[in-house]
């Protein structure tokens, strides 16, 4: 039990050393990730649609 308590104390000390982002930075980074994800989903969806169209039109 002492080892677990010691481990948790060390974790707390290490977490105090972390440079945490501000709230604004976190919101900005989250919006960037969501934006890139939406862009990639649309891009890949259009590519898939284009390939399907080409296959249906010229191969089948």
UniProtKB/TrEMBL annotation:
The keyword Manganese does not apply. One of its GO terms (cellular component) is plasma membrane. GO terms for molecular function: protein transmembrane transporter activity. InterPro entries: SecE_bac (IPR005807), SecE_sf (IPR038379), Translocase_SecE/Sec61-g (IPR001901). PROSITE patterns: SECE_SEC61G (PS01067). The chain crosses the membrane at residues 27-47. It is a single-pass membrane protein. GO terms for biological process: intracellular protein transmembrane transport; protein secretion; protein targeting; protein transport by the Sec complex. Keywords: Cell membrane, Membrane, Protein transport, Translocation, Transmembrane, Transmembrane helix, Transport. It is found in: Cell membrane; Membrane. Gene3D superfamilies: Preprotein translocase secy subunit (1.20.5.1030). NCBIfam families: secE_bact. Component of the Sec protein translocase complex. Heterotrimer consisting of SecY, SecE and SecG subunits. The heterotrimers can form oligomers, although 1 heterotrimer is thought to be able to translocate proteins. Interacts with the ribosome. Interacts with SecDF, and other proteins may be involved. Interacts with SecA. HAMAP family: SecE. Essential subunit of the Sec protein translocation channel SecYEG. Clamps together the 2 halves of SecY. May contact the channel plug during translocation. PANTHER family: PROTEIN TRANSLOCASE SUBUNIT SECE. Belongs to the SecE/SEC61-gamma family. This is Protein translocase subunit SecE. It comes from Candidatus Yanofskybacteria bacterium RIFCSPLOWO2_12_FULL_43_11b. The lineage of its organism: Bacteria, Candidatus Yanofskyibacteriota. The gene is secE.
């Amino acid at each position: 039990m002492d080892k677990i308590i010691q481990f948790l104390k060390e974790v707390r000390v290490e977490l105090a050393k972390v440079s945490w982002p501000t709230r604004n930075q976190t919101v900005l980074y989250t919006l960037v990730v969501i934006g890139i994800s939406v862009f990639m989903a649309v891009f890949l969806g259009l590519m898939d649609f284009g390939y399907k169209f080409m296959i249906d039109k010229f191969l089948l």
